[in-house]
Description:
The complex is a heterodimer of chains A (about 425) and B (about 150). With about 425 residues, chain A is an alpha/beta fold. Chain A has helices at about 20-25, 55-65, 75-95, 110-125, 145-155, 170-175, 200-210, 220-225, 230, 255-260, 295-310, 315-335, 360-370, 380-390, 405-420, and strands at about 35, 40, 40, 105, 130-135, 155-160, 180-185, 210-215, 235-240, 250-255, 270-275, 280, 340, 350-355, 370-375, 375, 395. Helices cover about 40% and strands about 15% of the residues of chain A. Chain A has a seven-stranded mixed beta sheet, sandwiched between helices. Chain A has a four-stranded antiparallel beta sheet with strand order 13-14-17-16, covered by helices on one side. In chain A, helix 5 (about 145-155) links the parallel strand 5 and strand 6 (about 155-160). The longest helix of chain A has 21 residues, at about 75-95. Chain A starts with 20 loop residues before the first helix and ends with a helix. Chain B is of the alpha+beta class. Chain B has seven helices and four strands. In chain B, strands 3-2-1-4 form a four-stranded mixed beta sheet, with helices on one face. Mean pLDDT of chain B is about 85; it is low at about 100-110.
Amino acid sequence: MNTAPARRVDRPPATTVPFDVDSVRADFPILARTVHGKPLAFLDSGASAQKPRQVIDAIARCYEAEYANIHRGVYELSAKATEAYEGARARVQRFVNARSASEIVFTKGATEAINLVATSWGGTFLKEGDEVVLSVLEHHANIVPWQLLRERTGIVLKVVPVDDSGAFRLDDYEALVGPRTRLVALTHVSNVLGTVLPVTEIVRIAHAHGARVLLDGAQGIVHRSVDVQAMDVDFYCFSGHKLYGPGGIGVLYGKEALLAAMPPYQGGGDMIERVTFERTTFAPPPARFEAGTPPIAAAVGLHAALDYLATLDATAVAAHEHDLLAYATERLRAHNDVRLYGTASEKAAIVSFTMDGVHPHDVGTILDRAGVAVRVGHHCAQPLMDRFGIAGTVRASFGLYNTREDVDRLIGGLDEVREIFG
Amino acid sequence: MSELRELYQEVILDHGKSPRNFGRPEAVTGESHGHNPLCGDTVTIYITVADGVVADIGFEGRGCAISMASASMMTEMLRGKSLDEVQTMFTQFHALVAPSEPACEADFEAPDLDKLIVLAGVREFPMRVKCATLPWHTMKAALDGGSEEVTTE
Lengths: 422, 153
């Protein structure tokens, strides 16, 4: 496994300190609690990450001192709230290195971002017979919106396979992309297997055929450095809650010219220029895609999460996560009754496995009683489960705050599973 | 550990590993497919009713130890029962495993459910109650001749 590339931090703040997992853990209040009388070993950050005190405080401060609706009133509080909301947008722009803040659309999450692109861009520019390329790794959120679009427009979906290690088959991908391909919509990092996709080659091949590229970055943004200009992706989306930020907010990055050509996704306040009963003209992006009152405090919380990440040494964080992945892989491999899924050479800190003779749900229940929180089941990726001929897996996904001790707790919990299931 | 032992009793593990009445009986009068979309578990119940009595019952599917054991034990319990008895057992079984109906515990007449009582441990695991009840809902649908898939959601 290669060491994860460092997260790019533009303008590293003066407060950057060497990575110290104990001090990071102290920032996450929930990690101090117990579950079933045991200390919490939280290994489900891939589903949703825990929040640092800095994020929780920023949200509380927003509601306590600076909250009002945005883009409305002339009064001080509304001006402050507008500033905070637009400030969050500018912070996201710097985080992903977009050219302009107007390329950053706030959504409910990655799921809504993909639906927005499918409905607005896909619904406008894709016609019957046009092809959209997905992979077998996709989360349902990057499958179902395209199926809905297929029902409306008659587009054709093509699916790139993976090899037995869970690696993306680049040669098959290259063969699938053709003159009818209009969009390549792929996950950046698999939420089940941790596989990191070869973005540079994917984008190069797609663009050579005149196709656009959308990356589902729900996991990718957490575990890899993202520079949308360097990647040259057309759309990139992610959720705030997996990135140590609050729930209810996500991001769609889209190249300016693409967003400018897209019709609104929903209608309402804040997205218009001028409304009459005969005709309405729409605001330019990003406002065009943000109908209604947005989650203002969640945007503030996301801003705080990105600021928090910027205080950490990105290279050290990547090395820490890589160490956890390598350690967990090694410890799981030591057991003959454990089967690992996802052993690609390029992977993020996510391990999926099954135990012989024990259903993942039973493993999950027993681990829970040991204070170990893992996700079990199909992980919203049923086609991938079918690919490997399994109903589900046990998944441990690691975050900033996890330790080798958490891995030991997981391994110890598996011993309890063996004890019960004999 | 004690609640876990209560949940995963030997008899449950045994039925989970070696389910009884697994497969499709010959003359089936009703069948239904059940699915838990949250975990992907599936179960198909086949039932043969003759003269108002469950003459034969079998199942197929895949899932966790709890759902497989629940299906297996249910098929053992229901064979030979009248449809009225089946309805009573259905109600009693829900009272046994569903924590939302704790009042039923006191009134619960254990003899009717016989060895199904080992599944009572599920009550302490709210996330797993549906694993135990899916086969029963699917069985009901099979009796009612429903062609729609049963889901836990």
